[in-house]
Specification:
Layout: H1 2-9, H2 12-32
């Protein structure tokens, strides 16, 4: 995730959208597990 985040940080416009999707995927995956 660190490498993806650094790549996402390059584009501030999509940074927030990607971070939101990632943050949503983390709790979702935790719930599934």
């Amino acid at each position: 995730n660190g490498m993806l985040l650094s790549a996402i940080h390059t584009e501030k416009g999509e940074e927030k959208l990607n971070l939101v999707m990632v943050s949503d995927a983390i709790p979702a995956g935790a719930k599934l597990c």
